[in-house]
Amino acid sequence: MKPFLYQVASHFYSEYGAEVSRLAFVFPNRRTGLFFQKYLSEVSEKPLFSPTILTINDLFVQLSGKQTADRISMLFKLYDIYLSHSGSSETFDEFLYWGEMLLNDFDDIDKYMADARMLFTNVTDLREIENDFSFLSPEQIAAIRTFWSSFYPKGDTPNQEQFLAVWQILYALYTDLREALAAEGKGYEGMIFREVVEKMEKNECCDLPYTRIVFVGLNALSVAEERFLSELQKREIADFCWDYASPKVTDPDNKASYFVERNLRRFPSQFIPDPPLSTPQIDVIGIPSGIGQAKQVHRILSELCKEDEMSAEEALRTAVILPDEHLLIPVLNAIPEQIRRINVTMGYPLAGTPVASLMEYILALQKNVRYVDRRPVFYFRDVLPILNHRYISTTSPEVVSGLVKDISENNKIYISYDDLNKTPLLSILFTPVTEVEMFSDYLINVLRELNRAIDDGQCTMDDEKGDEKLSIVNCQLSIADIEQEFIFHYFATVNRMKEVMREANVEMKIETYFRLLKRLTDTITIPFHGEPLSGLQIMGVLETRALDFDRLIILSMNEGIFPLRKAANSFIPYNLRRGFGLPTYEHQDSVWAYHFYRLIYRASHVSLLYDTRSNGLQTGEVSRFVHQLHYHYEEPIRNKLVIYNVSSSKTPALQVAKTEEVMNRLAAFRDGGTRAISASAVNTYLDCPLKFYFSVVEGIREEEEVSETIESNVFGSILHKVMEELYQPFCGKMVTADLLKAIRKDTPMLTGAVARAFAEIFFKTDIVRPLTGQNFLIGEMIRKYVEKVLERDGKLTPFRYIESEKKIKCLFSLTDKSNIQLKGFIDRIDEVRDAVRIIDYKSGSGTTQFTSVEALFDKEDTDRAKAVMQVFMYAWMYGSVPHSTAIQPGIYYMRTLFSPSFDPGIYRRTDRFKTEQVLDFANYHTDFENGLRNCLDEIFGTETPFVQTPNGKACTYCPFKDICGK
Hints:
By secondary structure, the chain is an alpha/beta fold. About 45% of the residues lie in helices and about 15% in strands. It is built from 38 helices and 30 strands. It has a seven-stranded parallel beta sheet with strand order 9-17-8-18-19-7-20, with helices on both faces. A five-stranded mixed beta sheet has the order 22-23-24-25-27, sandwiched between helices. The chain has a four-stranded parallel beta sheet with strand order 2-1-5-6. Strand 23 and strand 24 (about 820-830) form a beta hairpin. Residues about 460-475 have low confidence and may be disordered.
């Protein structure tokens, strides 16, 4: 296979010999020029002065004498011009989106030499079209007529009125922007192109410093480029080398031929490239994964290498093409070890670097800063991503992890600057910035401090041994070097933004500033330093122009990615674009088709990989080019489908045997140990023995997270705390109806008690603040519950309140005579009508009925009365010390407090319709003790392992369900 550029080099060297150095060669991009120089040196076989190598953009800029204007500064200029013409009060933030759209449109207008005055004319009479647009073809006039006919006769909708209002000033914006840029000796790309062409057509352009200019491998020419080439052709100094050898590219039925006939007719070429000796072998491989495509690249390249290292020349003839740049890093990681040299032409997008993600977190932080008592506080959802970002967490690991732990454990929803100001970097990061003018300096300081931290070795960027390297060709870079490169590019971008903003002096919000910065970073790529003429080539589609490879691997061959289907944002409607010869999506389709068919023409083996998944807008459909090859050209294609074997076998049942180690852990609950069994632990065992093992024996807890809203368990704790505080002064005393009524009516006192409970349990602070937002609503709900409890208690007066939140411990004897330590917290103990009540508050709903004591310990009963078992256990523990009065268990369910039939008493269902209240626990004491003993015997015996629950109801909210897999 002789590459196209090799044939061009051979042709011109045979014609000019060493004099070829006096020519200028114009290529689609600079990389093409490098390959041409390589081939020219191979053809000459001796030292040779290189001819001038240019891109067509370089040539235009060289002839114009103007500098290419900065896009951001052009946006600011255009905004000022827009305000002066429209008198609008529109902010820069609102203008930004369509300001960018207008810059693109103006660029197209100039590149395609459209008459801007005629384009932006408001056609009030359709008859004017025939006269004013006589220079256009009938098809173009028909397209323009189609558009304007929807506006007249008058019947304007508000959208049409808005469109016309802006449309009428667009010509003024266009001319004023050009004048403003020309005054500074600058211009946008299209403006530079147009000026050069117009000067050449008037013979005002300076003489070219080249005896001959050869245009190589071009295809989609704008009108300005065509007229430029025509002028050079008239001066007889231009030559053209078109890569139209492929019959598919010249096929009129193929969109790739859109420019072919026109270019060959207007710019005939003396050079005709030779056809390849063979047709390519094409493999189409479907893979249900994006990363899977990168893995497949490894497999294909490994087959090429076998066991030997791939030679430099062989690697240079192999290319991996990435239409989707997001697969760059997975592909780099998938390159086999046998390939030592890699050349990446794409660059790594700055927007995909860790520093870019950190900057996004910083913006969110600064947008949501609040002031409490005139002091800045930051929202925890903005703080935690920054603290957990690897740049920050690795600078001072102990300090940062301590901060994260403190925020989580103390449930800090808003964190003050003083709490976060622990290191120089954190001090800069969490400095509130309110003025957009200060934002650049703020970001610069953050980036400087980050860079210093990496320099000082505080950031250990994943290279645990300190010797991890990234090798691109022969260039050895440490991970820290790469991170600093990322930071430097972001630093340079922020600095540039600062300069432009200072010059423009436009008011904007911080969000607008950051949107502009993001637009800038989205367009910046960090180049990989390497030798372009050595090693495996990894490139985007546009970098392949005029290049040929023997072995091609093209990824993302999906419809919508290759060819890319992306609607161009334009203020100029489609019909007007067509009417004035501006590019439309058909133009884009032909460009992609040309790139594809030209690229595969000289290859011997082509692997086309595509993603078979259907996900959202992604259809999993293979590119139309593959269908065209198969059906239209009837090329022999080998279709393959990569399938991943995904097993869905049932997870084996998990159980924990009572080994010596487990028994040692259980020994901590025996007499003299450090732990004790609670009623909720017994309930956990009855729900699921395995959950008991994880949570009680092993002590595994869910990771603490900051909670903005009150969870049900916290709700209950706050309610318990308020009730405890209210009844605390009356412990051991008689409580009367008047007393409870006075408390119930004292709303400020109740609200204060709720706020204090919130501060202690939810906010975990000594500072008591009035509740706000959702917490205020929940606080009011708790107050209503408390008032209702007091109202219910008023009906029991007079009664003696004995104690709140009583901590109780006792020993329980098992069948083997060993003792187990039990513990419990009784919410409330009081004496009503000669009976001591053991009361448990429950914030949810539940039952106060049970069928038998045995049923309370039945693990297979899905509706087991858990709360009854718990209050019975408290009654048993309290009754372990002899009492002269009856012990009466009861449950206050908050959900049923407001029901007229509310009754805290516990009832045993004797048959279907009859129940009897448990007035004295002594009647159930022995049965309950036996049931509890059987349960504890099973827990502490060696025979029964900790197994999964027999019913699935307990799994619904279980935190361990991902571990056990039931």
